[in-house]
Amino acid sequence: MADKGELSMYESTIEQIKEARAQAIHHTRLARQFALERRDLMQSLLAQGVSQSYIARELGVTRQAIQKMLAC
C-alpha cells in the first residue's frame, strides 16, 4: 500500500477517472432520453399508418431492430 506522499502522485489520474465516470453517466442519461424520443417519434409514425418495414428501410436497420427500439 502506498503512503500518503505517494498517493498524491496519483491524484490527477484519479480526478481523470472521476471525470470520465461523470461523463459516462451523463451520456448514458442522454442516450436514454434520445431512445425515448426516438420511440415516441416512431410510435407517431406507426399511428399515422407508416409500417415498421418502411421505417426500417428509411433508417437502414432491420424491422426487428425497429421492434427492439419500440420496446424501450
Describe the overall structure.
The chain has 72 residues and is mainly α. The protein has a domain at 31-72. It contains four helices and no strands. It has helices spanning 4-7, 11-47, 52-59, 63-70. α3 (52-59) crosses α4 (63-70). It is rod-shaped, with a radius of gyration of 22 Å. The mean pLDDT is 93. It comes from Streptomyces fagopyri. This is Helix-turn-helix domain-containing protein.
List the helices and strands and how they pair.
Blueprint: H1 4-7, H2 11-47, H3 52-59, H4 63-70
Keyphrases for this structure?
mainly alpha; single chain; 72 residues; 4 helices; rod-shaped
For the secondary structure, the number of strands is 0
Helical fraction equals over 70%
- The separation of the N and C termini measures 45 Å
Q: How would you name the oligomeric state of the polypeptide chains in this document?
A: single chain
Amount of beta strand: under 5%
What order do the SSEs take from the amino end to the carboxyl end, as H and E? HHHH
- Globally, the shape reads rod-shaped
Mean pLDDT: 93
The description of the largest β-sheet is: none
Secondary-structure class: mainly alpha
Low-confidence residue ranges: none
How many helix segments? 4
| Cα Rg | 22 Å
